[in-house]
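User: Can you predict the 3D structure of MaoC domain protein dehydratase? Sequence below.
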Amino acid sequence: MEKTYLEDYEVGEEFTSPARTMTEADIVNFAGMTGDWHPIHTNVEFASQTPFKERIAHGMLTLCLGSALIFRLGQYVALPKSFIAFYGMDKVRFVGPVKIHDTIKTTMKILALENKDEKRGIMVCENTISNQRDEAVVIYTTRALVGRRP
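Assistant: Sure. Here are the predicted structure tokens for MaoC domain protein dehydratase:
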């Protein structure tokens, strides 16, 4: 069924993205774009002395890449055609490291479908980015402003 409006979704419905492997280039490029050159991400010797024993990806990099993965399911699958705007993000938690060569995927579960007015609603989703061992690494809630069925 084509997902066009808020009413085309059900609370509890889940979508899981394709996976993507974190690369050293991802980390270096993110550090360059943001200016976040913290040695836990960019210095092999420093990172080897941390509890992680090696460099890890920036939490925000993992969040950015993981949140975009859900769109690889295809246009208008995880969000309806009537998508208006990203409405917000809550309860972001970085609960595990992502290392170079880890493969991440995102699962999005619909928590609530809220009517905002006659024309618009809010789709509330819990999102979990996990690694190749199905260990959660980032958990967060998103809200999307979407159209309602006329």
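The radius of gyration is 17 Å. The longest strand covers residues 103-115.
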